[in-house]
Every structure is written in C-alpha cells, then in structure tokens.
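Reproducibility note. Readers wishing to regenerate the assembly model reported in the main text can use the exact inputs given here. Chain order matters: entities are listed in the order in which they were concatenated for prediction.
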Amino acid sequence: MTTAIAVDGLSRHYRDHQALTDVSFEIGTPCIAGLLGRNGAGKTTLLRILAGQEFATSGTVRIFGGGPLENDAVLRRMILVREDQTYPDLRVRHAISAASLMYPNWDVELAGALLDTFELPMNRPIKKLSRGMRTALGITVGLAARAELTLFDEPYSGLDAVARTLFYDRLLADYTEHPRCIVLSTHLIDEAAELLDRVLVIDHGRLVLDAPTDELRGAATTVMGAASGVDRFIAGRTTLDRQSMGTHTRAVMVGRLDQRDRELADHLHLRLEDVTLQQLAVYAAEHPDPSGLIPARAS
Amino acid sequence: MRATPVLSVIRYLLLDRITYLVLPWGWAAFGFLIDVVVLRLTPAGHTDHRWVGGLGAVFLVMLTVGIQSVARALPFALTLGVSRRSYFLGVVALALALAVCFGLVVALGQIAERATGGWGMDMAYFRVPYVLDGPWYQSWLTATTAFALLFVYGMWYGLVFRRAGLPGTTVFGAAQLAVLALAAVVATWVHGWKDIGHLFTTLTATGLTACLAAVLAVMLAGGFATMRRLTI
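Running the prediction on these inputs yields the following structure tokens for the assembly.
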C-alpha cells in the first residue's frame, strides 16, 4: 500500500486558539478514511493544511511524498471539497466545466450521472441553489474529479436521508471501480461506518484515536443488567463509562469478548451490545488515553 | 496534451465571459450612448474636440473586474488543486491579455473617431487630452498599461480583503493615503512642489506610460506577496 498522506508533529496555532496539537498519522492508498470529531475539533483545519490551503505552525505534511504547499505536481492529484465551499458567480455547468479543466481523470459520464441523480439543473446559477443542492454539486465535483486523494469536509451537510444514501452508494461503487484514497470528515459516523476502512478521531486539536475500522468493531462493549452482575463482569477491565439507575447498571468496557465471556454474561443475565463507531468516537474524545482501546499512533 | 496550470486558470476565469468580456464594453457602449445624448442636447461651442469622459467607465470596470477575479473565483480554484502561484500567474496573464486587447480597441476607436470627425459631432470619446491623444500605437501602449494597472490594483485589493477582511482593507487603503500624505509633507519640507509641477508639465505621454508601468510592477510584487500568504 502506497502512503498517500503522512503527517508528523503537525500543529496549528492561531492568535488565541490552538487548532491542532502535535498530530501524526499516515494513510495509505487505496483507503476510505473517516475523520471524526466534534464541531471545532480541528478537522477542517487539518484538511485545509493537507490541501495546502492553510499553513502549519509546525510539523510536516507529505502528500504522495511531496509537500502540498504551492506544489502543483501534488495539488493536481488531490481535491478538497468543503462544507462551506465558495463558488464563483457561475452556473452549475460552469463549475462542472471548471473542474473538468483541472483534473486529467475527470469522468464526464459519472458527472452527468451524479447531476441526474441529485437532480441538479445545469443552467441554474450556483448562488440560487439550495444548501442541499450546493452540497450535491460539491459531491459531484469531488467524485467525478477522480483525484488520487479526495478530501470531503462534511460532504453531506444539508442533504436529506435519501440523497445521503445515494452518495454512499455512488461513493462505494466508484471506489470499488477506481480505488483511491478518500478522506471524509463527518459527524454522521454510524451512517458512514460501513464505508470506512480507517477511523481517525480528533478532539480539541489532538488525534485521540487512529485505527482500522475492523479493529474497532467489537473493541468495546456495553454491558447492561443488575449492578452486582455488571460489576462482577467488568471487574479487572478498563471501563469507559458507567451509569446506574436504581439496581440497573450500564457500563462500557474495553476489550474483546470470547465465548467464556458471553457464557458468563448469560449466566449473570446481562445484556451485551457492541459499541458503535459513533459511541467509540465519543468515548475516545472523553478518554484520550483509554488503555486497551486502540489509541492514536504516538507522535 | 494537458494544459499547463496557468492556462487552465485562464480558461477557468474565462468561463465567466460576462464579467471579463461583456461587462467592460457593455459599460463602454452605455457611456458612449450617454455621451452622444449629452452632446446632442448641449451647444457645440467653438471647439474641434468635445471631450467626454465615458471611456473612464471601462477603466473603472477593469478595477472591479480585478477585485472579482479573486473575490469569488479564487477559493474554488484552490479547491480544484490550483496553487496560489499558478492562480496569480493565470490572473495576471489574463489581465495583460485583456489589457492588450482593450488597449487595441481604444487605439482603433481613436482612428475611427478621427476618421469620422468625432462621430459626426466632434466627440472625443476614445481620446483623453494629453494622455490618450497621440498616435495610435502610443495610445495603445498607454491604454494597455492603464488597463493592466487598474486590473492588478483591483486584484490586490481583493486579495487584501480575502486575507484581512474589511478592517484590513480599510487599513490598506489608509496606508496608501498615509504614504501620499507623507510624500506631500516631505515635498513641502524640501520645497519640492515647484519641481514636481515642472515634472508633470514636461512629462510626455511616453514618460507617463513608463511611470504607470513602474507602479504596475509595484502592484504585481505587492499582489504576489499577499497571495503567497493567503488562506481560504
């Protein structure tokens, strides 16, 4: 697997705000990676630095082995479509033409199919599109560009559930046909969970979780039942959360379960549920260094 | 063969033909009509040249087109993997190409204007006393330089606005006024106004064009320096 993104010790400091602190990770290609985190966590800043649109205070960024800043050879291999994307005062067809000028692998047929799918009127001025339609335009440009590194910052903002499903389907179909490196920053983690090969969680500018999705599935479990039973079950294990209501207790524990664990849970009349990626991201943000839960690569 | 990034930027900008091609000469045509109406309604007097200022609209539109070239089009270009340097070079190349073509229109307009006796009414629309009133090639050069200068000046303002917002743009404008005021103070201290007046009265159109070209070079350097630190 070729390294598409290599970030080492990246920090970004603004006058009164530390947006990113000592972030380090690598992402190979092909891969679909999810960049997860709360509002203001630093996701957009990170993506902007990756795309050469923002400057790092310290640290290094390598895209396909080269620095992205003012590097045409690297930049023409990547695209960043943002939630708050600013478009020129043009029509939809002009934006499509503009993108086709810049990308050697631009797929005219895919662009046309996506425009049809999202029912985007080619001749409508972009400023008169609804928020969802502007988002759909960004998705169309981002996918049809077939850039080797495609960065989507909150790509489904304003899209309804049907359009989001269409996006996931199209993204997966196109990725299967043309594997490349795609990074999605999103809040809707569980919706996109099936797409993701890799998950990175950012909180307060720090990378708190970086792991393959397969390793995260089943990495933590919610245990529910009588307090005594739950306490016995989770004894000696790392817990991320514990809440009691009367005699009923709900605890989130780190670690994979084997057959003996399941038999014990059955014996104690406990209910077990896998923790979803969304919940894991929340816990990772709350417990930046949970032993057992796969932590971010040391920087 | 794939176009170079700079050529792609030019083609990208020219997707908005209304702004770059139609708007300046739409305003020129409108100004021309207004001037014709005004001259029809006012007495001719005893002059061979009835100077009008309609052509100034084209120069002002070039200033706003320069602002527009970075205000809205720049963020999407950077999204599409264009570097700041390529974008800047593309915009400047387009500005120079437009300036050359527009300057030629002015020069040809002067020729037509002289051949038709000022459009049959002694109107000097394409001519400006002293500045654009020489041979066609001189007018072409001067108009080209002025068009390019205003476009790049507008672009620089647009870049400053993108980088520093309204407060920064206000400071930028105020700083220029401060420099001019300081120059005036220095000229007063060293009793240089007489020499300055002499310079302006003896400066030829060619000399003026050279001065404009020097200012253009400063604008280009300032614009590029601003672009290099721009974030979106």
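We highlight two features of this model. Chain B touches chain A at residues 2-3, 5, 8, 11-12, 15-16, 19, 72-73, 75-86, 228-229, 231-232 (CB under 8 Å). Chain B has a mean pLDDT of 91.
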